[in-house]
Design a protein that fits this description.
Blueprint: H1 3-12, H2 15-26, H3 35-44, H4 46-66, H5 74-79, H6 89-93, H7 108-116, E1 121-125, H8 132-145, E2 149-154, H9 157-171, E3 176-179, E4 184-185, E5 191-195, H10 196-207, H11 213-216, E6 218-223, H12 235-244, E7 250-255, H13 261-271, E8 276-280, E9 291-293, E10 299-301, H14 319-339
Parallel strand pairs: 1-7, 1-8, 2-5, 2-6, 3-5, 6-7
Antiparallel strand pairs: 3-4, 9-10
The structure holds adenosine-5'-triphosphate and magnesium ion.
Length: 340
């Protein structure tokens, strides 16, 4: 290795290895010595210790290829007896995969949401992955039976494309159209997927007397990701869409992250012809697990327990996650000083 290559390879080593290497070739480094100074110390002794340094680098590189699992060290667990043994990677990853197929049974809140649309508008505020699409599909099915037009809006073109594919599979391609800034397919279909901006513009035109025929029979407007109502820049689009939505159409607002759904339901009730029903719960169908993945490929649970801590104040970091993160910070600060 040339001196440059050697220095670059040393910069890739974790801090603790560099300290160990510095100790073996130049004596114990001072406690407060940073990564940059340790590398300089090693480089100063490189000429007479080249083989030893290269061996350390090669061992580390070979280890990196072999690493998959990270057991946590019992010594660290013992250091905090109150917290118990930290979760190991095996239990952290256990059960992840495709579940056994089971017959589909809608949850009570899903049935309640679809039924509530018979009586008025509905806000569904439930966690990610709970099954909001089922509510949208069943509500669409009902509106189709009544020969109404259904508009499904999302904030992103990419999400609109995904929904277009999904709805085309469920209702058949002839029944579903899409209108976004980039795409216009089957625009006279009874089910129309569009970005919220496009719907707002159609409603604007209608307010000015230019009524699009598709709005005549509008029976259901689904606003997916409706937390965008609170977006400082785009929120006004959702607000105007709700205000201008024809009174004969039902509104279904879907979101995993509205902070004040009661207030929103009260507002809809005050400006729309029928009361707005709020469906809300916080149970996760798919529990969250938090892990920490270091750029070197090491994965570890982020917290000592596999389950998410009930509140941030009860969150205790996994010792391995702490160690990897410290290593990352040291490497990152060395890298930025070196390129700066
Ligand atoms: N009652 C149910 N029982 C079992 N699985 C269900 C049920 N309802 C929906 N699912 C499944 O749950 C998964 C997530 O559903 P969906 O995409 O509708 O979630 P979502 O609430 O829209 O999530 P997001 O907030 O990410 O948009 C899908 O695979 C769906 O088939
Ligand atoms: Mg969804």
């Amino acid at each position: 290795m040339t001196r440059d290559e050697l220095e670059r390879a040393l910069a890739e080593l974790p801090f603790r290895l560099l300290r160990r290497l510095a100790r073996t070739i130049a004596g114990p480094p001072a406690m407060r010595m940073g990564k940059r100074r340790i590398i300089h110390t090693i480089m100063a002794a490189a000429e007479t210790n080249q083989a030893r340094i290269e061996a350390a680098i090669r061992t580390h590189q070979a280890e990196q290829h072999a690493i998959a699992a990270v057991p946590s060290t019992p010594a660290e667990a013992a250091a905090d007896p109150k917290a118990g043994k930290p979760a190991d990677l095996g239990s952290f990853l256990e059960g992840i995969g495709v579940p056994e197929p089971r017959p589909f049974v809608p949850d009570d809140w899903q049935v309640e949401a679809v039924d509530a649309l018979e009586r008025g508008d509905v806000i569904v505020s439930v966690p990610t992955g709970s099954g909001k699409t089922y509510v949208a599909v069943e509500a669409t099915r009902r509106a189709m039976r009544e020969e109404r037009t259904i508009v499904y809006t999302s904030p992103l073109k990419a999400l609109s494309n995904t929904k277009f594919t999904e709805f085309s599979k469920v209702f058949g391609p002839e029944s579903v159209g899409i209108i976004t800034g980039d795409r216009r397919d089957n625009p006279n279909a009874p089910i129309l997927i569009m970005t919220t901006e496009i719907l707002r513009n159609l409603l604007y035109d209608a307010a000015g007397g230019e009524i699009d025929v598709r709005l005549d029979t509008l029976g259901l407007v689904i606003l997916d990701e409706s937390q965008f109502l609170g977006d400082p820049e785009r929120g006004v689009v959702w607000e105007e869409t709700i205000i201008f939505c024809p009174s004969q159409a039902r509104m279904l607002l879907l979101s995993a992250s509205i902070g004040n759904p009661q207030e929103l339901a009260a507002w809809l009730t005050s400006i729309r012809p029928n009361p707005c029903h709020l469906i809300r719960h916080q149970r996760r169908s798919v529990p969250l697990r938090a892990g920490y993945l270091h750029p070197n490929g090491k994965l570890t649970p982020l917290f000592r327990t596999v389950a998410m801590p009930p509140s941030p104040s009860q969150a205790i970091l996994h010792p391995e996650a702490k160690r990897l993160f410290t290593m990352y910070e040291e490497d990152a600060s060395y890298g930025s000083r070196r390129s700066g």
